[in-house]
Amino acid sequence: MGNLDELLTLANQNGRRLSKARVIEVVENCEKQRFALSADGTMIRANQGHSINVDLELKPVTPPAELYHGTVQKFLESIRHKGLINGNHQYVHLSRDRQTAIKVGSRRGKPIILTVNSGQMHADGILFYQAENGVWLTDHVPPSYLAEE
Question: For the chain, N or C: smaller number of CB within 10 Å?
Fold first, then answer.
């Protein structure tokens, strides 16, 4: 977690008008719940880490039997060979339901939904985590655990 006062100071020093009230508004109203504040409101962090390595203090948890990932055609060939990789993110992001995966895949075009055999992955010793906003996270999904719908 980062110090909220430091964030505000640095943002304002660099020409970004930012107030504590605005940060709280963004955290509370972000549809995807990307950020979290500490209980005392002095610290802020990303819920999923994204492109920088952040200790999210996540503990491994048992996933549901199936999870979903939304993608588009141009990534399918690579996924068939390498599986789902974290790329520029800290983790591979997976959805609990098809609708969310469709929404995610639709951001880049016509969505293709992949079903992840997360129950078998977990049984095989692959770790899963769940971010505070409900997104399921893992380091990598090998192709053998994926099915195209």
Answer: C
